[in-house]
Structure formats: C-alpha cells, structure tokens
Design goal:
With 219 residues, this protein is of the alpha/beta class. The chain is 34% helix and 16% strand. The protein contains seven helices and six strands, in the order E-H-H-E-H-E-H-H-H-E-H-E-E. It has helices at residues 20-24, 37-51, 65-77, 105-108, 110-117, 132-149, 161-171; strands at residues 8-15, 58-61, 84-85, 154-159, 186-192, 197-204. Strands 3-2-4-1-5-6 form a six-stranded mixed β-sheet. Strand 2, helix 3 and strand 3 (84-85) form a beta-alpha-beta unit. The longest helix has 18 residues, at 132-149. It is globular. The two termini are 17 Å apart.
Length: 219
C-alpha cells in the first residue's frame, strides 16, 4: 500500500448501490429511494475491497439515503469512519421526470424528456429540474473543497450517476462522455494543489464478480 504524495488528493468517486428503481429503469433524481437487497450486497462487496486497499481518511456522501447508506457500509469497513453528508453531491433534479420509467418518458412527459436529452448545457427540466451546468458547478465545487481539505490523503465520495458524469467531464482532458456509470463503480481521480484533475481509473466493478452468486466477501 503506497503512500500518497502531499501535493494531491486521491478521491475515489463511487456511484451508490442498486435500488429497485435502478433495476426497473425508473428515474430517481432527487427522490429518496432505499437500496434493495442486491444493493446491500454490492455495498458489502465494495466495502470489503476498499478495506484491503490504501487507508481511507474520510468518506463523503450525497445526503440522499441510497448514497448515504452505501457510504455507511464503506465507512464501517474502513476504520469505523463517520460519513459526512454534502448536499452538493446530490443527483440532478429531474423535475417532471421524477418517478417515471425512462423508456416511457418521451410519451408521458414529452417536454421534460426533450429538455433532458437536449445538448444545451443550460437547459433546465420542466417541473423545477436542474441543468447540466448547475450540477457541474455544484459537484465540482464540492470535490474541490474536499480535495483542498485532504491533501496527501485518500478519500471516498459516494454520489450519483449524473453527478459522476459531470465530474468525469471536469477530469477528462477532451471532455468525452463517461459512458454508463454502473452501481458501485470505482472511479479514481487525483486533484492537485494547482486544481489539475486527472482520471487514474474508471468504471471498475470487479468487486461485484461474486455478488450474483451470493458470494459476498467480508471486511
């Protein structure tokens, strides 16, 4: 387990474990949905993995419970840490699309769906929904604060799919799409004192290999 250099922070950005709404393809946004049984197993497998890697100094999480419960599972395995809630790590507000199965959204809420798929980054979603620029600003500001506080340390941030897409945009040198962000995927960033962001690894879900067969390792 190598020591980190003091001029950057290693941030492990993780999407929360699975919920029934994830499994159904239903849009959660900022609605507060519980993890399902598979999600609890995914969290345990992820926590066991992280507990065997370089020491984690802190765990931060969105205040939505699907993220925070995932963070609690990790924190228990990694030195009994207490997760810190940060509302700036929340999912995008999805407005009129909340609670709708995504594949039906264009028929049920066509205007909201049109706004969601728009390429305009300042496009808000009808019904109080946010824009991509809004989520980009708040989540990248949150990571900047966390990095500044934990120079030379390794920390975990548990958040949401759309949030991670915007974090990827900030870290990517060419602004390319992150692709689909899977539940409990591990995405490692280095944030330097000069506010330079680097993506070290992306989309690792190797810890889930045994979950479908009920083989969940312990801490």
């Amino acid at each position: 387990m190598s020591e980190l250099k003091s001029d950057y922070t290693e941030i492990i950005v993780i999407r929360h474990s699975e919920t029934d709404w994830n499994a159904d393809g239903r849009i959660q946004g900022q609605l507060d949905v519980d993890l399902n049984d598979v999600g609890m197993q995914q969290g345990a497998a992820l926590a066991a993995r992280l507990s065997k890697e370089t020491k984690i100094s802190a765990v931060y999480s969105s205040d939505l419970k699907r993220a925070f419960v995932t963070a609690e599972i990790i924190a228990q395995c990694c030195g009994m840490l207490v997760p810190v809630k940060d509302p700036d790590l929340r999912e995008r507000h999805m407005g009129d699309l909340h609670g709708i199965v995504f594949n039906e959204a264009d028929k049920i809420k066509p205007e909201a769906h049109k706004a969601f798929v728009s390429l305009k980054r300042d496009q808000e979603i009808p019904g109080g929904g946010g824009s991509r620029n809004q989520i980009y600003d708040r989540c990248t500001s949150a990571l900047h604060r966390i990095a500044k506080k934990h120079r030379g340390e390794r920390v975990v941030v548990v958040t949401h799919g759309a949030t991670i897409e915007q974090i990827h945009r900030r870290g990517s040198s060419n602004g390319m799409s992150s692709g689909k962000v899977l539940n409990t995927s591990v995405n490692v960033f280095h944030l330097s004192e000069e506010d330079k962001w680097s993506i070290i690894s992306w989309g690792d879900v190797s810890h889930l290999d045994g979950v479908d067969n009920g083989q969940v390792p312990s801490c």
